[in-house]
Amino acid sequence: MIEMRKQECARFRDMLKSEIALLRELHHPNIVELKQVYHTTNNCYIVTEYCEGGDVAAHLKSKLRLPEQQAVGLLRDLLSAYQYLVSKNILHRDIKPANTFLTADGTLKLADFGFAIRQDDSELARLNVGSPVYMAPECL
């Protein structure tokens, strides 16, 4: 049991290091910007830009539906971020409304790169990770 917990902690640390490394190299208007990383004895704090509008999941719950023009703008922002990631051979692997945030002016920002990997890491790319409710049926 203790050995299993140590392995889980080591896996979590590796994922965290990977997420920080990716965020350090990503610079795009539709991807949340990494500001600073602080380490203490027991914790790691990742500071990103503040997105005043909150996450898109909460926004959708409060609005129930979006005007078509706003939905098109959000999708355009998301696709721009996705295209940028593809150009850098990065797979996000957990795109969902709760991992997208809105700035004060309504710009969408993609966040949470905890499951992200480089596309050339073919073995890891085959793993089904992320949120099942947002996965393509063929992945399930």
Fraction in helix:
40-55%
Number of strands: 7
Strand content: 15-25%
How many alpha or pi helices?
A: 4
Stretches with pLDDT under 50, minimum 5 residues = none
Average pLDDT rating: 86
Helix and strand content put the structural class at: alpha+beta
Distance between the termini: 30 Å
Spatial order of the strands forming the largest sheet: 3-5-6
Question: What overall form do the CA principal axes indicate?
Answer: globular
Radius of gyration from the alpha-carbon trace, in angstroms: 16 Å
Largest sheet: 3 strands, antiparallel
Following the backbone from N to C, one meets helices and strands in this order, namely HEEEHHEEEEH
Brief summary:
By secondary structure, the protein is an alpha+beta fold. The chain is built from 4 helices and 7 strands, in the order αβββααββββα.
Label this structure with key terms.
single chain; about 140 residues; alpha+beta; 4 helices; 7 strands; about 15% strand; globular
Give structural notes.
The two termini are 30 Å apart. It contains 4 helices and 7 strands. The mean pLDDT is 86. With 140 residues, the protein is an alpha+beta fold. 40% of the residues lie in helices and 16% in strands. A 3-stranded antiparallel beta sheet has the order 3-5-6. A two-stranded antiparallel ribbon has the order 1-2.
Set down the secondary structure blueprint:
Elements (H helix, E strand, L loop, with lengths): L1 H24 L8 E6 L4 E5 L5 E2 H8 L4 H20 L2 E2 L8 E3 L5 E3 L6 E2 L3 H4 L15
Antiparallel strand pairs: 1-2, 3-5, 4-7, 5-6
